[in-house]
Design a protein that fits this description.
By secondary structure, the chain is α+β, with helices and mostly antiparallel strands. The chain folds into three domains: 29-115; 123-233, Immunoglobulin-like; 243-332, Immunoglobulin-like (Sandwich), CATH 2.60.40. Helix content is 43%, strand content 18%. The protein has helices at 3-25, 37-74, 84-115, 223-234, 243-254, 257-260, 294-303, 320-332; strands spanning 123-130, 133-138, 143-146, 148-152, 157-163, 168-171, 179-181, 187-191, 197-203, 215-221, 284-285, 290-291. Helix 2 packs antiparallel against helix 3. The chain is elongated. The protein binds dinuclear copper ion (CUA). Dinuclear copper ion binds next to loops. Dinuclear copper ion is lined by residues 129, 132, 168, 203, 205-207, 211, 214.
């Protein structure tokens, strides 16, 4: 192998290992950074498979090297060492049977544990997939929101999944395995977060142009914080005292926005797009397309197609004062 090719190989191996370490230690939504019992199981299995594979690659590599060197020195294949047959049986038959059986039993045990909750759920949430956003409903608490899913830490949460259109798949790598969302069918999964935090989720089934930007966030809160969130969500959003926001509400109700979006306690009752009753508290705009800031919101209202091409929202024509008022109103909703 020429020096340049060897250098390239070493560099790419180095980059691969660095990426693996970054995923395990950094701030990425990685399965190697589990934050709940479901993801813990998956990570343990992954590390076991990684260690076994690494050992196999190293041993096979060392044997290959040994074979090449020895063959050159002795000059012929007839000079076979006495342990060669034992090695072939042990390494080629016995070892794979033992390891694959362990992996098979371990995987079956984890699949059974992940599909059967260990007890009753404290909270039940319905999540409906849409191209390309997530409708989130807490039936018992009568809460409807979108793209951010609040859960209490340390408690089992049952999530019932379905879709309004094509196949999607619900995946929060740091909490548990992915589950498909299938039209006309409800799949149930259980998640639990053991640490407060915001965990990024992602649609994991190709569902069209904006599949990659079908993102959501699981906000895991202490039970007390979760309860105050529930209490706030069950009330209509508090009327803002800011005059611009008050004017913005009139703009909202008179504009095409109200035909597709709902805000509790107003005449806007559209159901084609996400419910915006707590929009100001949301982490992102367009299901993770951009962070929720005034500037991004203005850009989204005027021309969301430039941010997330193919989404259902048409451009909204407003004069600058109306636009600023509308932004103030939407950001005041929480
Ligand atoms: Cu929804 Cu991919």
């Amino acid at each position: 192998m020429c020096a340049r090719a060897r250098g390239r190989l070493c560099r790419s191996a180095g980059v691969g290992i660095a990426a693996l370490l970054a995923a395990a230690c950094g701030n990425s939504p990685s399965t190697l950074k589990p934050r709940g019992p479901g993801a813990d199981r998956i990570a343990s299995l992954w590390w076991f498979m990684f260690v076994v594979s690494t050992v196999v690659v190293l041993v096979v590599g060392a044997l290959l090297l040994y074979a090449v060197v020895k063959r050159r020195r002795r000059g012929g294949p007839s000079d076979e060492p006495r342990w060669a047959h034992g090695m072939m049986f042990g390494g080629g038959v016995a070892f794979p049977i033992v390891i694959l059986t362990v992996l098979w039993v371990w995987t079956l045990r984890d699949m059974a544990a992940l599909s059967q909750p260990a007890g009753p759920a404290a909270v039940t949430i319905d999540v409906v997939g849409h191209q390309w956003w997530w409708e989130v409903r807490y039936q018992q608490e009568r809460i409807i929101t979108a793209n951010d899913i609040h859960i209490p830490v340390g408690q089992r949460v049952e999530i019932r999944l379905t879709t309004k259109d094509v196949l999607h798949s619900f995946w929060v790598p740091q909490l548990t395995a992915k589950t498909d969302m299938i039209a006309g069918r409800t799949n149930t999964m259980t998640v639990q977060a053991d640490h407060p935090g915001v965990y990024r989720g992602q649609c994991a089934e190709f569902c069209g142009l904006q599949h990659a930007q079908m993102i959501f966030y699981v906000v895991a809160q202490t039970p007390a914080d979760y309860q105050s969130w529930v209490a706030r969500e069950t009330e209509p959003p508090a009327a803002s005292t800011d005059q611009t926001a008050v004017q913005g509400r009139q703009v909202f109700e008179a504009s095409p926005c109200a035909a597709c979006h709902t805000v509790r306690g107003t005449s806007a009752q559209g159901t084609l797009g996400p419910d915006l009753s707590d929009f100001g508290a949301r982490l992102s705009i367009g299901a993770g397309a951009v962070p929720n800031t005034r500037g991004n919101l203005g850009g989204w209202i005027v021309d969301s197609q430039s941010i997330k091409p193919g989404n259902l929202m048409p451009p909204i024509q407003l004069d600058p004062d109306q636009l600023q008022a509308l932004i103030s109103y939407l950001e005041s909703l929480r």
